[in-house]
Design brief:
Blueprint: E1 3-5, E2 24-27, H1 59-71, H2 77-83, H3 90-106, E3 114-115, E4 118-119, H4 122-126, H5 133-152, H6 165-177, E5 179-182, E6 188-193, H7 196-199, E7 202-203, E8 209-214, E9 227-229, E10 258-263, E11 274-275, H8 284-295, H9 302-305, H10 311-316, H11 326-346, H12 349-362, E12 364-366, E13 369-371, H13 378-394, H14 400-425, H15 432-453, H16 457-462, H17 471-476, H18 485-499, H19 503-511, H20 537-561, H21 566-576
Parallel strand pairs: 7-11
Antiparallel strand pairs: 1-9, 2-6, 3-4, 5-6, 8-10, 12-13
Helix pairs in contact: 2-5, 3-5, 3-6, 5-6, 11-12, 11-13, 12-13, 13-14, 14-15, 14-19, 15-20, 18-20, 19-20, 20-21
Pfam families: SET
Protein name: SET domain-containing protein
Length: about 575
């Protein structure tokens, strides 16, 4: 099944749907004590942590979710799982039990391959041998669900059988259709399953739409559906009213994060609507592996079948080594991934920085070759992301000079990540979300450094207004409603032109003393023609570049996320002052 455009949408950043309520949802295990179980919003730190398995931010959230949690038998899961561990996120099981509750309450069950209009993909997920890890997890999860519902109904689990076809099918629906719900800093805090108006949207590695999450109180009064299911004999849209039963076939429940679809490219009437199910900054091989492991399908979108590969995919795999076999690349990949995993597990930031920077600077030695990565290679991008984090950790040092140096390097890697991926974004507009986050991260990191060395940074921020590009006016305007892609490119050019003269000076200040960063400029146009910095000049220019990066990232973010999103509010807090962290929460 697929969804297509019900009308032509020439501009970008348009809501294609009203906010949609979930059919089922659940927090991931690690966020049960830090986030509201209903709306997924973060909770304030509790000096006396509760032993209750679920927490809520308000009485309304409690009243909307707690009865569902109890009725679905989710609270009985831990008893069975304490004796029969489940190799996976128990959020899948809780979401599946909630969905199962609704199916039995509101819908006669007729088949296992499609439930509430959603494909279960059951045959594909369980077609492997019985010792297959994925298949085994589904079967064990279905058994745990059955045990929980029997305990709820007062039935002895000694009556458990060997087959739980309904539970397996519902769990497969969740695995196939659930989407990771992210908070404003990009962390995946839980999952949610939505009705067919969302779940029938297919994947593409070059999508024309994206989705964002809104709080439960977001209603979108007056908004209409600009997408509709395609007819069975082609892509001609079925004409439906906004309140069509076909679009709301399943019973939506109270609470849970709402989702809205927005377009990031112009769309012709009848054209298929697509979103991304995976990280688009991965090369084709990794995207396909991720899609197969999670959803059991192989993507055949235009980007994946392009011969030769698209410019973006070529860049993501580019090496500066003349020749190298697959084994050498696999060894390099394993080395970098191991260094990153070691840092994430042990928090040994200094060791991680040494390993990654040595590889980036001197290459990876394999047999008689030295394999060198291009700055736009996906392994380089992963390394930059990790190095920005690792140097930030190292900046938490009592030695002020050392702390400042680490902050400089962290800001430099954040900025490098934004610059490198921005060039990819100009070739592939679907990367807008990633690039926006990178520019925002760079701006935030640079402003943090500026505050560290400027006593009057906040007062300078409040008076900031660049007349050359007017980014702050663009950020606050409603330009995202009804604007053409050309307008976005014009804004991008204004931003680049505005910081070009200042950027090289700031870059030289940020990277001074880092062997890799001092030479990485070779393939980045913005870093050419580096000039000397005069004494003290870098302070004002840091502020200038930091605010520009923050606002430009915010302008891009407004397109796919809306001007009233949590992140947009957060950016206003950083620029105008105030407690940005609490903004919108």
């Amino acid at each position: 099944m697929e969804m297509v455009a019900a009308a032509e949408v020439e501009s970008i950043g348009v809501n294609l749907t009203p906010p949609l309520s979930p059919l089922s949802y659940s927090l991931h295990d690690s966020f049960l004590l830090s986030h509201c179980a209903s709306c997924f919003s973060p909770l304030p730190p509790d000096p006396h942590p509760s032993l209750h398995p679920l927490l809520y931010c308000s009485p309304s959230c409690s009243s909307s979710h707690s009865p569902l949690h109890l009725s679905s038998a989710s609270h009985h899961l831990h008893i069975h799982l304490s004796q029969n561990p489940y190799d996976g996120q128990t959020s899948d099981l809780r979401a599946a039990l909630l969905l199962l509750l609704q199916i039995k309450s509101h819908h006669p069950f007729k088949q296992y391959d499609r439930i509430c209009g959603l494909m279960s993909n059951r045959h594909q997920l369980l077609m492997s041998n019985h010792d297959d890890e994925f298949s085994t997890r589904i079967k064990n999860g279905a058994r745990a669900m059955a045990a929980a519902t029997m305990m709820r109904d007062g039935i002895s689990d000694s009556n458990l059988s060997e087959e739980y076809l309904l539970e397996e099918a519902v769990l497969c629906v969740v695995v196939t259709n659930a989407v990771e719900v992210q908070d404003r800093v990009g962390r995946s805090v839980g999952i949610a399953v939505y009705n067919i108006s969302f779940s029938w949207i297919n994947h593409s590695c070059s999508p024309n739409a994206c989705y964002l999450f809104l709080p439960p109180e977001s209603h979108g009064d007056g908004q209409r559906f600009l997408i509709t299911p395609a007819s069975s004999n082609g892509r001609q849209p079925i004409q439906l009213s906004p309140n069509s039963q076909f679009l709301t076939e399943s019973t939506e429940i109270h609470g849970g994060p709402r989702v809205v679809i927005r377009n990031i490219k112009p769309i012709k009437k009848g054209a298929q609507i697509t979103i991304a199910y995976t990280d688009l900054l991965q090369p084709k091989e990794l995207r396909q592996l991720d899609l197969w492991s999670k959803y059991r399908f192989t993507c055949c979108c235009n980007r994946c079948i392009a011969v030769p590969p698209t410019h973006v995919d070529q860049c993501l795999q580019t090496l500066t080594t003349a020749s190298c076999n697959d084994v050498g690349i696999e060894n390099l990949t394993e080395y970098i991934n191991d260094a990153i995993d070691e840092y994430l597990s042990s928090n040994n930031a200094e060791s991680c920085c040494k390993k990654l920077e040595n590889t980036l600077l001197n290459g990876f030695h394999y047999e008689q070759l030295i394999i060198r990565l291009n700055p736009q290679n996906h392994l380089s991008l992963n390394a930059y992301t990790t190095l920005a984090s690792a140097y930030k950790v190292r900046s938490m040092d009592e030695n002020l000079l050392h702390s400042k140096k680490m902050k400089r390097f962290s800001a430099a890697y954040s900025l490098l990540l934004a610059v490198v991926t921005h060039k990819l974004f100009l070739s592939e507009s679907c990367l807008i979300a990633s690039v926006s986050n990178f520019w925002i991260g760079a701006g935030e990191s640079i402003l943090d450094l500026a505050r560290n060395i400027m006593s009057d940074c906040d007062s300078e921020l409040q008076s900031f207004n660049c007349l050359k590009c007017g980014l702050i006016d663009v950020f606050e305007s409603d330009f995202v409603n009804g604007q053409s892609p050309k307008r976005v490119l014009d804004i991008s050019k204004m931003f680049i032109n505005c910081i070009t003269d200042v950027f090289p000076k700031v870059w030289k200040f940020l990277v001074h003393g880092n062997s890799y960063l001092e030479v990485v400029k070779d393939s980045i146009d913005l870093l050419m023609n580096v000039k000397e910095i005069k004494g003290g000049e870098e302070r004002v220019e840091l502020l200038w570049v930091g605010v520009h990066c923050l606002l430009y990232g915010g302008v891009l973010m407004n397109i796919f996320g809306g001007k009233d999103s949590h992140l947009s509010c957060y950016i206003r807090g950083l620029v105008y002052g105030g407690d940005a962290k609490d903004c919108g929460e």
